[in-house]
Design brief:
This protein has helices at residues 10-36, 41-49, 67-81, 83-103, 106-117, 177-181, 236-272, 284-312, 318-343, 345-348, 354-363, 371-385, 418-431, 439-443, 451-463, 484-490, 501-507; strands at 122-125, 141-145, 148-159, 166-172, 186-192, 198-203, 214-224, 229-230, 274-275, 278-279, 395-397, 404-406, 437-438, 467-471, 477-482. With 509 residues, it is of the alpha+beta class. The longest helix is centred in the middle third of the chain and has 37 residues, at 236-272. Bound molecules: flavin-adenine dinucleotide. Residues 91, 124-127, 132-133, 157-159, 206, 209, 214, 363, 366-370, 372-373 line the site of flavin-adenine dinucleotide.
């Protein structure tokens, strides 16, 4: 039995049982979609009937108030059935619902949330023909016209295109460079399907997500009323970024079902496939692949439900949700490759659903932000979040061990002179010979705040060829190290020598 993580509420555990039972009963229906290529409208209607579209919606608007965790539970189980059903559900959740709950006013919530709770579909419109990963460069414009806005532009790759009743759309409302610099140039809107001037331009024929419409939207002087604007004009980037954690995590939750099914087919098939007079699951090689599949699933589930829990607690979840999306999307693809390998040629036929899951796997590294974008976010956020833990340890030669070792006590410079600064750099060469010192390293070794004096001394040392300096675009010193000439001037050459005992013996030093 798949683990219900211990921190789920009783209501969420009950939900998990209900959705699992629904998925178990409808797996065959999901498989049919692979052959018929028909969108599973009946299944979607049943999902709506059960009230699962209302999972994150407050009860006063007809929802169930089960939070991000509730949505993830639903997406995980639906994704065992088929991608079209899961994506239609999940995109609705992060294509309007989340934004309305967080940024909508009472009138907007009252107008749209109860409809969605009953199963009206949503869409999210960020991407354009010329705008992908660089979402801030959105070209679609929204021009104010009295109390209305006029939309002009095209959106592409829009999931639920044509199916959705409402679209959460981001458009440019300012061309001022100052607004662009401050990310105040975009606004967020809820656009209804029957808006005059809004048409479905074309449908993408995708390599997976069979049966689900994904397409281009065209907005040609499409007039939308004032009530469409979410938050204030200029809040678009804030709304967009705020919704990304939920989007990424829900996307990741929708990868857990196929990862589970992959294990089921790999185990079931290899228990029944006899080669060399034994079931192929008896081969250790296959067991190790299946072991990795269990490990990946467990890790991906922990990441997803941990991020969901953080979001439900209103805690910062940028790292957690980004990591969940990145890890799950790469683990999902690997999971299917392993499942197919364990199943041999059967795995690559369309007579088992693993092949369809394999085709669906790739898009998860593209949609909702590519893996590269996830890594860019993790790199930046990681440096920020862990900044206190990432200070480079100060190193010096240990008095008795006579080896470079980190130290909490540092000998600081009382007076900033050419001699003392050069000595500091020579000492650093002894413990970090291949590295420059950052300006922060140097300032940290001054007894008093004498930054200006340090900068002027460094400049003089540079003109004398005693140090190498690195400067930023504004000409400010960022790094420095003693040159060969500087090292020679700072200390006698013996000061830099160091040999281990074995080398001393061997080389007679
Ligand atoms: C099936 C599907 C469904 C989608 N659904 C929606 C939807 O409902 N709504 C919506 O708005 N969008 C949707 N998208 C769009 C999706 O979000 C974009 O495809 C994604 O953001 C990447 O944009 P792009 O495809 O234009 O790739 P590009 O941005 O052109 O990138 C191409 C490659 O270059 C890399 N790259 C780009 N810039 C950098 C950089 N600075 N550093 C390192 N690498 C970089 C990317 O990671 C990628 O590998 C969907 C996409 C797909 C495929």
């Amino acid at each position: 039995m798949i683990e219900k993580l211990p921190w789920l509420t009783e209501e969420q555990k009950e939900l998990a049982d209900q959705v699992k039972a629904f998925a178990d009963a409808n797996l065959a229906m999901g498989e049919q979609v692979i052959w018929t290529r028909e969108f599973p409208s009946d299944l979607l209607a049943q999902v709506a009937e059960k009230g699962w579209f209302g999972a994150p919606i407050p009860k006063e608007y007809g929802g169930k108030n089960l939070g991000v965790t509730g949505c993830c539970i639903i997406a995980e189980e639906l994704s065992r059935i088929c991608a079209a059903l899961t994506a239609a559900y999940s995109v609705t959740m992060f294509g309007g619902v989340e934004q309305l709950i967080k940024f909508g006013n009472a009138e907007q919530k009252q107008r749209w949330l109860p409809q969605i709770a009953k199963g009206k579909l949503g869409g999210i419109c960020i991407t354009e023909p010329g705008v992908g990963s660089d979402a801030a460069s959105i070209e679609t414009t929204a021009r104010k016209d009295g109390d209305d806005y006029i939309l002009n532009g095209k959106k592409r790759f829009i999931t639920n295109a044509g199916l959705a009743d409402i679209y959460c759309l981001y458009a440019r409302t300012s061309d001022s460079p100052e607004d662009r610099r401050k990310y105040r140039h975009l606004s967020a809107f809820i656009v209804e399907r029957d808006t005059p001037g809004f048409t479905l331009e074309r449908i993408n024929e995708l390599g997976g997500w069979i049966g689900l419409p994904n397409g281009y939207l065209d907005f040609n002087d499409a007039k939308i009323p004032k009530i469409s604007l979410l938050g204030e004009e200029g809040d678009g980037w804030k709304v967009l970024v705020d919704g990304l954690n939920f989007e990424r995590n829900l996307f990741a939750a929708g990868m857990l079902g196929p990862m589970r099914e992959g294990i089921r087919y790999a185990v079931g098939h290899s228990q029944r496939r006899i080669q060399f007079n034994q079931p192929t699951i008896d081969s250790e090689i296959n067991q190790f692949k299946i072991a990795d599949m269990f490990a990946r699933l467990a890790t991906a589930r922990l990441l997803v439900y941990h991020a969901a829990h953080l979001m439900d607690m209103k805690a910062d979840a940028v790292m957690a949700a980004t990591n969940a999306k990145l890890y799950a999307s790469e683990a999902y693809e690997r999971q299917m490759i392993d499942a197919m390998q364990v199943m041999g040629g059967d795995g690559w036929t369309q007579f088992y659903p693993v092949e369809a899951f394999m085709r669906d796997a790739k898009v998860n590294q593209l949609g909702a932000g590519t893996s590269e974008v996830m890594r860019m976010v993790l790199f930046r956020q990681g440096l920020r979040v862990m900044s206190e833990d990432l200070t480079m340890p100060y190193r010096k030669i240990h008095e008795t061990l006579n080896v470079p070792i980190s130290s909490t006590t540092r000998s600081k410079i009382a007076e900033v002179t050419e001699k003392s600064v050069l000595q500091m750099m020579a000492d650093d060469y002894i413990v970090n010979p291949g590295l420059h010192m950052t300006k922060g390293d140097m300032v940290g070794l001054l007894q008093t705040t004498a930054e200006e004096k340090l900068v002027s001394v460094l400049a003089v040392l540079e003109t004398k060829g005693l140090v190498h300096l690195l400067r930023d675009r504004k000409g400010r010193i960022t790094h420095g190290k003693a040159s060969f000439k500087g090292l020679k001037k700072a200390k006698p050459s013996e000061a830099y020598r160091w040999y281990p005992e074995w080398a001393k013996k061997l080389l007679k030093l």
